[in-house]
């Protein structure tokens, strides 16, 4: 039997109120809808009686107002949703009171409270959150792709493991397995030859859970997903099965790792949100960037260096995050490569997903810290044809293929390098705090873990 939806309607003074009342009456006449309250969000063009009493009388329903009738009362909308236990918000307003930007801001408020936001030709739904985990957990999500989620996830997993929390990682990727797959990074030796064997079997051996297993040496569970919505939901994924599998393995803490801007559809105790400051500012400050940021207990800014982002841009984004989520810790970082094997005095061909604009910084870091000679680089790990061309161009000069474990790292970079007689060494990416105080990042991550455990125990005591 279909249940009654308790509806909050948003109205403006740019419509004659008899017209607005007709719309409210029509909604109320629908079998499974009940308009329980109305919020006036601005506009004066067609107001004859602008008093709260007059508007309430004309509409024949409880009408609520913000402190300033000329501004959208975002806080009041949230308050009324909670007060009336609202199931859905229906927007009956229009331009010029709301524009696209303001509607996304309303959507962020509404979706953050776990209910849909609808209008004449749009519907935004809150993200899916299956409550299946039986262990303390955190979620790592991001505002886009190629901003370092897997690198941070692996870094966090290593840190948590060193502090004796016994974690596992559940990761979803666009190339993940049909059924959730356990990789015992804590037990098996993941060599280039081993990954080639997996690749030859049809496995996407550079999927995120393989990278997590190699870099962190812990148990990981790989899942797949297709599609990514504006808010962060996916079209299909087997991550719920992966989370259920995490309940059964030998681990005491679960890290759920997102994919691109898609958010793991599993309810967790805490959230770490990555923001790539190399992204257009509008994608962070507008649309559903604020929604993702609002979920965070810890925000890690990545790519915080020239030429990817100016100091002014980094500061602007830090200030924005502090304004909309003042309770979250915000830490700015850059990534630096860390080979998993010895490259001292070797001629290196370096394959990465980092943009070409930053290659000189990465080359200098590798040569200064690891004593190698970088004879060539390619930023095309995610572009197989261009990657192959770069390998062919440099392969006669190199002794070692140094590659991140992403995209085409196995089926192209590893394969071509092994066939040419090169040694293959995989490379991690380490987040480095821009002020040099990496203990601050470590402490912040452990604080989130401790908070997640406390929250979990509180719910289950």
Describe the structure.
With 461 residues, this protein is an alpha/beta fold. Helix content is 36%, strand content 24%. The protein has helices at residues 17-29, 52-59, 74-83, 100-112, 149-162, 192-200, 208-216, 239-246, 281-285, 289-294, 311-324, 359-370, 384-394, 409-419, 438-459, and strands at residues 5-11, 33-40, 63-65, 88-91, 117-119, 122-124, 137-142, 167-173, 181-184, 219-226, 236-237, 253-257, 270-276, 298-302, 329-339, 347-351, 373-378, 400-404, 423-433. Strands 7, 8, 9, 10, 11, 12, 13, 14, 15, 16, 17, 18 and 19 form a 13-stranded mixed beta sheet that branches. Helix 14 links the parallel strand 18 and strand 19 (423-433). Helix 3 packs parallel to helix 4, helix 5 (149-162) runs parallel beside helix 7 and helix 6 crosses helix 14 (409-419). The model has no long low-confidence stretch (mean pLDDT 93).
Assign a percent range to the helix content: 25-40%
Overall pLDDT metric: 93
The major β-sheet equals: 13 strands, mixed
- Number of beta strands: 19
Protein name: Cyclic 2,3-diphosphoglycerate synthetase
GO biological process, one term: gluconeogenesis
Family: Belongs to the cyclic 2,3-diphosphoglycerate synthetase family.
GO molecular function: ATP binding; cyclic 2,3-diphosphoglycerate synthetase activity; ligase activity
How would you concisely characterize the structure shown here?
This protein has 461 residues and is an alpha/beta fold. The chain has 15 helices and 19 strands.
